[in-house]
Recover the amino acids of this structure.
């Protein structure tokens, strides 16, 4: 094997960091709530990629049975499903009341 | 080098890693820049499928399957339903980025600088030695299941039950939020 071309854990971490940053930019700059929620999904996926990459690294040390990172990734996916369901429910309730999907018009709690 | 690696070379080549990574990055950029939310959702589905491919390259076929079935098949369908329930025509004519977009990008750039600082430090071999570690494939789903469902110490059965409770709460919460009157 050509050692130069090997894909190490760090490659996956850099990719995860890039996706995380894209998600953060989306959350901070977009007005549309649906796209903000999708950016949150991007962030969660970046974390998942890191978890699975570390799981692989960990397996190389402790044997193929050490799948803790993958189990964590499954828990994160569960949380993402719950978050999407509740978030979209809130979005529907919000749209019914204010006829908009823009986050910066959600200012009822603003003092 | 690991003897298993020599006898059982991985099918995952660096070419596929860079291909899938490029698809994911381009998809992510499209998600946060498209005006139409349906286009964003389609780009996000592409990103999720490419990520499932990366999970396969990391020898995590069960997580890859869950990613495709649950994320690309379940959560994104939910997103598309909601996008079509709410009217997007009016929103597409409006401004897409909020007033503090510049501050947001600066904050994200600061976070990116932090990532670069951390990863260039660890790349010198502090935390992660360079190179891939390999082992024989197979038994992945069984391993995940025995970690999730066994009652030994150090497994995740209790967390699994808590997760099912979380899903129950989320179902009730979604119904309560979306229903007009209970």
């Amino acid at each position: 094997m050509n050692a130069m071309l090997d894909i190490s854990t760090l490659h996956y971490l850099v990719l995860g960091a890039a996706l995380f940053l894209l998600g953060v930019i989306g959350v901070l700059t977009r007005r549309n709530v649906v796209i903000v929620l999708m950016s949150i999904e991007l962030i969660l996926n970046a974390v998942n990629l890191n978890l699975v990459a570390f799981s692989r690294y960990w397996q190389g040390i402790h044997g193929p049975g050490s799948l803790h990172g993958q189990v964590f990734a499954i828990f994160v996916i569960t949380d993402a499903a719950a978050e999407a369901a509740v978030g979209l429910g809130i979005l529907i309730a919000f749209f019914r009341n204010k006829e908009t999907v823009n986050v910066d018009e959600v200012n009822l709690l603003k003092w | 080098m690991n003897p298993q690696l020599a006898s059982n070379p991985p099918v995952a080549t660096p070419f596929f890693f860079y291909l899938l990574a490029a698809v994911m990055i381009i998809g992510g950029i499209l998600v946060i820049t498209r005006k139409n939310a349906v286009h964003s959702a389609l780009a996000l589905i592409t990103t999720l499928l490419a990520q499932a491919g990366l999970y396969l390259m990391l020898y995590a076929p069960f997580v890859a399957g869950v990613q495709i079935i649950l994320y690309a098949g379940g959560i994104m369908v939910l997103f598309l339903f909601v996008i079509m329930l709410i009217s997007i025509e009016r929103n597409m004519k409006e401004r897409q980025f909020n007033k503090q977009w510049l501050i947001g990008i600066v904050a994200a750039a600061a976070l990116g600088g932090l990532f670069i600082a951390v990863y260039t430090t660890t790349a010198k071999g502090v935390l992660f030695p360079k190179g891939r570690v390999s082992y024989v494939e197979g038994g992945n789903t069984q391993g995940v299941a025995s970690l999730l469902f066994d009652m030994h110490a150090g497994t995740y059965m209790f967390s699994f039950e808590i997760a099912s409770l979380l899903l129950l709460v989320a179902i009730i919460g979604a119904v309560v939020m979306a229903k007009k009157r209970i």
Q: What stands out?
A: Residues 68-98 of chain A form the longest helix (31 residues). Chain A touches chain B through 79 residues (CB under 8 Å). Chain A has one domain: 8-99.
